[in-house]
Amino acid sequence: MSEKIVVIGEVKDGVLRNVSFEAIAAAKKVHADGEVVGVVCGNGELSSLGEEMIHYGADRVITVTHENLQNYTSEGYCQAVMAVVEEEAPQVIVMGHTSVGKDLTPKLASKLNTGLISDAVDIEIADDQVQFVRPIYSGKAFEKKVITDGLTFFTIRPNNIAALDKDTSRSGDVTDKAVEIADIRTVIKDVIRKASEGVDLSEANVIVAGGRGVKSEEGFKPLYELAEVLGGAVGASRGACDAEYCDYSLQIGQTGKVVTPDLYIAVGISGAIQHLAGMSNSKVIVAINKDPEATIFNIADYGIVGDLFDIIPLLIEEVKKA
Ligand code: FAD
């Protein structure tokens, strides 16, 4: 009998987050021949999201629709996913290591009386074992973990395990499961979002991050322009957030977001260890700093020594030409 794998999809603003598709690819790395069962929770029409999971490699999808799942609450989603897991009895469960994933998966693990490997950035097969690679000590080292017994339950960091290519010719069942979602003590009355434009920082492939060297809110404008021409998002150091040049939602680092884009451009950021904790696993790091001794250059793949206010407009011009 092939292994059964439950992939918990995550919906944001009516669309599945990319990490849901990456989780399907991760599931296939664990058991290439396993049956992948996607789960999508929410309120309203979810079947098109189910179809999308199938296009990205799920074999079938179970949707759980309920008015109490309109917004994420750990109580509601826990009940919904538990109902699916109890029925499916999978050998593997996987979800994205997002804010929702970080909240939901420990609760599920506790209910299932099982362990959880969180924040895996890679999955390797060695000595007939599935090894989960995860960063430790703020990204300065990696450990490999193996599950020796029971359920394999893990989360993956967004942007590390590539999703499979979308194949719209794939088909599979999308079925709705009726679940009684009751006794919700948390009632979300309203969701007020900060106005944010463009690409989601934690899933961006390109990030242009500004530090205290950017000097003002006004100074961030060219960074937004560069991010836009590169199809990326703007991030920041805590130095820049503390100085009120930008919002704390942009903070990257130990006490901010952890990101792993393909390209990270650090602009006027010194490279404090707490900042590196959030971005040092980026695939290509470019640092722009007027101080040739700045620590950020130690981890940068490409360094530009100079004044950011001269360099950023030149970069924008060159990217526009390309
Ligand atoms: P600075 O260290 O002041 O660096 C500014 C840089 O800009 C300098 O290198 C300078 O040479 C350069 N510069 C100035 N002008 C120009 C110019 N015109 N052109 C080019 N370069 C220029 N920090 C984080 O970022 N994220 C975190 O999550 C985080 N968590 C923390 C948690 C704790 C418990 C503590 C104690 C600290 C934390 N910090 C965090 C703060 C961290 O220690 C640093 O203070 C912060 O990262 C510094 O920000 P910065 O690099 O923007 O500023």
Task: Describe the 3D structure.
The protein is α/β, with parallel strands linked by helices and 322 residues long. It is 28% helix and 26% strand. It has a seven-stranded parallel β-sheet with strand order 7-11-6-1-4-5-12, with helices on both faces. Helix 5 (221-230) packs parallel to helix 9. The longest helix has 15 residues, at 74-88. It is globular and about 60 Å long. It starts with a strand and ends with a helix. The mean pLDDT is 94. Bound molecules: flavin-adenine dinucleotide (FAD). Flavin-adenine dinucleotide binds at residues 211-213, 237-240, 251, 253-256, 268-270, 272, 274-275, 278, 288-291, 294, 307-309.
Structural class: alpha/beta
Number of strands: 17
| pLDDT averaged residue by residue | 94
- In the predicted model, the low-confidence regions spanning at least 5 consecutive residues are none
**Amino-to-carboxy terminus distance:** 52 Å
Bound molecules: flavin-adenine dinucleotide
Strand order of the largest sheet: 7-11-6-1-4-5-12
Biggest sheet overview = 7 strands, parallel
Strand % is: 25-35%
Radius of gyration: 21 Å
Q: Helix and strand string, N-terminal first?
A: EEEHEHEHEHEEEEEEEHEHEHEHEH
Number of helices: 9
- Estimate percent helicity: 25-40%
Q: Which geometry do the CA atoms define?
A: globular
